[in-house]
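Backbones bend. Our protein:
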Amino acid sequence: MATDAVNSQKKADDRDAKQLEARLGLDQGDGSRMVMRAAPMGTRVSSYSPEVATIQVWMSEIVGMTSSDSPVPVSASWSTYTLTLQWQKSDWKLAVISQEGGPTPLQTSDAAPDSVRTFEKMERDFHAPPYIG
């Protein structure tokens, strides 16, 4: 992160994490039933100078709980993140992150959603890359 952005980003991350936990109905120690994965679909450079660059990343995400009584079952969403980078100390540093919904493609499959048990098994059997933030 850019030097002057670290504290505000930590506060935003903490706030967002608490909101997500509340929305999912998570209690302490209940995180093992949560599924949270994201994959980039594409990127583009919106602007560039030797000091500042703006990058957009189109993402597909799934998030939810693998319990049948969850207020938020595992579901998919699409969003575009805009990342503003600053050149500091001989490296690009993240200065600002913003997010907006979509673009969301049409669901063309006629397949019904899988059960929460299927997601529970997939979460156990398929290992996600570790979070390194």
